[in-house]
């Protein structure tokens, strides 16, 4: 358990030793540029926590949105926490902000200390299926969700965004788990760089059996869900997850022909990138696009 808790803290020490690929899709922005300068205009609406429930009596999920159904985009949020911790409460400010701007937001979670491969991936996929199945109750727009996820949650969700239909487990909801858009916030997307940190998560060491590691790495699924739109956001002052994770993932997606943009926020740290004042306008612009 101690090793699990220090995984997120020591992530930077191992990952920074990995080779990097120069990104051709990176735009460097100061964090001040991302606050209060969005061209998006939204109507004045009343929002609140619409529902707090569980998926199949197990996974908590909170639904935020406008009081009345409308042409609202659907967003599914996932928190970070180093795979073995974290809580959806960390994403509440972002959930509330997006809802106030006219979105239906499902603030979701996944198994952490009692999870691992494939259960945590199955939970993310099931939460997306759940959001799609219920979106029509809150929005008149097509149920085509955007998944927004932070840190370890972004790593899990990036895999689901590409091959979510292959992860089902005991999910009581059928249908596709593939989103139309993925917005990753400071995610460590290539877990094969973290072989010293995640053996307990994948149930084996990489050198013993690489198959679960490869199945759980977004890099190995590039080429799937080719219509996926991707926005990667990372702070240049992130001391937990090196910025090269996003730069390299963005470059690989771009080379494979995906619609992808990488935004590096000058001076932002690991936790700034889920602050609605910092990333809210970027997320709204991506959803509107």
Query: H/E element string?
Result: HHEEEEHEHEHEHHEHEH
Shape: globular
Unreliable stretches: 1-10, 12-44
Largest sheet: 9 strands, mixed
CATH class group:
Alpha Beta
CATH architectural group: 3-Layer(aba) Sandwich
Q: Going by CATH, what is the homologous superfamily?
A: Alpha/Beta hydrolase fold, catalytic domain
Task: Considering the chains and any ligands shown, give keywords for the structure.
single chain, Rossmann fold, 289 residues, alpha/beta, globular, nine-stranded mixed β-sheet
Describe, in plain words, how this protein is organized in 3D:
The chain has 289 residues and is an alpha/beta fold. The chain has a single domain, classed as 3-Layer(aba) Sandwich (Rossmann fold), CATH 3.40.50.1820. It is built from 9 helices and 9 strands. It has a 9-stranded mixed β-sheet with strand order 1-9-8-7-6-4-5-3-2, with helices on both faces. Helix 4 crosses helix 5. The longest helix has 16 residues.
Précis, in short:
The chain is of the alpha/beta class.
Give the SSE map:
Layout: H1 2-5, H2 7-15, E1 26-30, E2 47-55, E3 59-66, E4 74-78, H3 92-100, E5 104-108, H4 119-134, E6 146-150, H5 152-163, E7 181-185, H6 199-202, H7 211-215, E8 229-235, H8 244-255, E9 259-266, H9 276-288
Helix pairs in contact: 4-5
